[in-house]
C-alpha cells in the first residue's frame, strides 16, 4: 500500500511530477524536498521525512545523481521504493545497482515533460514510460505497470544500453539541433510553413534545458558519435551546395 511519495528535487520535472501526482493520486501525500524552499510540513519537507516515504523519486540533475541517491538512502525505510527518472539510463541504473543493495528500485525514463503535457492539454494517452531495470518482486512491478497503463501511459521495457542508444539518436539529436537554432538566432516569421512551425515547436520545447543537454552529452556514451555524424553530414551537404 502506497500512502506517501517523496519527490527529491523541485526543478522543472520535479514540479511536473508533483502536478501529475495531485491529479492521478489525490489520496496520496506528496512530500517535496527542495534546497530552495522552506520546510512547511505541508508540501515541502526536510530530506529525512521525504526520504522516508513509501516511494521516493529522485529528480536531481544527472551530475548530482549519485550524491543525491546516497543522501536519500541514508534515511530511506527498508520498504521504500526508489524511483530513478533520469534521462540517461546506463549511468543511473549502474548507480542503483551499486548503492541500493537491499533497497528496492525502479529505473525509468518518462518520455515526456511539462511542455509536451501542456501541448497535449493534459491528455496523457499514449505517453511513453521506459523501464530499464528494477529490483521489485515481479508481482509488485506488474501491479504498478498495470495501474499506470490504466491511466493511459504506454510502458516500454528495454535495456539501459538500448535506451541510451535510441535516446542519443532521437531526444539528444532534437536538443542538439534545437540548441544550434537558438544559438544562430533563427526566429519564427509571419510566413512560416507548417514544417518550420513544427521545427520551432521542437526548438521551443528544449530551449530551457541547456543543463540537461550538457548532462546527457556527458553521461550518455552514444551522444558524441551522434554529434559527429551530424557534423559530417552538415559539412557534406554544405559542400554539395557550393
CATH class of the largest domain: Alpha Beta
Proportion in helices:
40-55%
Find the CATH superfamily of the largest domain. Answer: NAD(P)-binding Rossmann-like Domain
> What's the helix-strand series?
EHEHEHEHEHEHEHHHHH
Instruction: Please report the total strand number as a whole number.
Output: 7
Alpha plus pi helix count: 11
Hey, roughly how much beta strand do the residues contain? 5-15%
**CATH-derived architecture of the largest domain:** 3-Layer(aba) Sandwich
Any idea of the CATH topology of the largest domain? Rossmann fold
- Average pLDDT, rounded to a whole number, is 96
Strand order of the largest sheet: 2-1-3-4-5-6-7
Query: Class by helix and strand content?
Result: alpha/beta
Globally, the shape reads globular
Using only C-alpha atoms, the radius of gyration works out to 19 Å
What can you see in these coordinates?
- Helix 8 packs across helix 9 (194-206).
- The protein folds into 2 domains: 4-159, Rossmann fold (3-Layer(aba) Sandwich), CATH 3.40.50; 169-241, no CATH class.
- It has helices at 12-24, 47-51, 65-73, 90-99, 114-119, 138-151, 160-168, 171-184, 194-206, 210-219, 223-241; strands at residues 4-8, 29-33, 55-58, 81-84, 104-110, 128-134, 154-157.
- 30% of the residues are buried.
- The protein is built from 11 helices and 7 strands.
- It has a 7-stranded mixed sheet, sandwiched between helices.
- It is α/β, with parallel strands linked by helices.
- It is globular and about 65 Å long.
- Helix 3 links the parallel strand 3 and strand 4.
- The model has no long low-confidence stretch (mean pLDDT 96).
